[in-house]
Amino acid sequence: MEAFWAFCTATLIPALIKILIALVIFWLGNKLIKFILGLTEKAMGKANLDAGVQSFLKSALKIVLFVVLVFIIISYLGIATTGLAALFASAGVTVGLALQGSLSNLAGGVLILILKPFKVGEYISACGEDGTVTSIEILCTKLITTDNKVVIIPNGALANGNITNYSREEFRRVDLVFGVSYDSDLKLVKNLLQQVGERHELTLKDEEHPVTVFINEFGASSIDFGFRVWCNNADYWTVKWAMMEQVKEAFDANNIEIPFNQLDVHMQNQ
Fold this sequence. Notes:
By secondary structure, this protein is an alpha+beta fold. It folds into 3 domains: about 15-100, Helix Hairpins (Orthogonal Bundle); about 110-165, SH3 type barrels (Roll), CATH 2.30.30.60; about 170-255, 2-Layer Sandwich (Alpha-Beta Plaits), CATH 3.30.70.100. It is built from 7 helices and 8 strands, in the order H-H-H-H-E-E-E-E-H-E-E-H-E-E-H. Strands 4-3-2-1-5 form a 5-stranded antiparallel beta sheet. The chain has a 3-stranded antiparallel beta sheet with strand order 6-8-7, with helices on one face. Helix 1 packs antiparallel against helix 2 and helix 6 (about 185-200) packs antiparallel against helix 7. The N and C termini lie far apart (about 115 Å).
């Protein structure tokens, strides 16, 4: 019994106290990390950094701070950090080989933040997906589609693929094609299209962004007119839908035929 109490006094109780202090250090360290991350977020906000850059840096800083906290606790508990560092290094090589795709995504995230092909809030098309960028994280980028689906794309694929950014420029051109029959008055068709484009309040009419109408192609059953108008980026879909509706109304009012495929069926009595 005396030996047991001696063991408790000399070994067990000090060890439990040390573990308890280590838990307190972890709790305080966690609070300190949250405080540092809060200060960093405010500093980045004042610096007007891009939202994607802020998210990336915050995630990276959080990982680094937690690694430092773990090493502090390990050192306090008396575990040799040199051997542990060597173990982490060898494990890191093994994990790195196993997670080459993740490392590629990490490098892709860094490239995206440096080159800035898109930012949070912009509408892009990439990797076969279209949507508004909601966040740029360490390994992936999140989009939300027009029908409210969340799409997650690995940054490696984004950095190595083609990206179309629809939001970067202030103005955007609406390109449409309208087919009319070969019997139509071409000058009348051209004038009607010109009037529709110039009449809408959201289309631009200056010299740099004119309404353009031209014969695009002589098709098998129609003469196809190209029709181009410019508008503010945010008005693209409104203008496109309005142009299609108003052109159809203008053609109907002036008896301009829009050809469509027809099938003639001949019945023969036997």
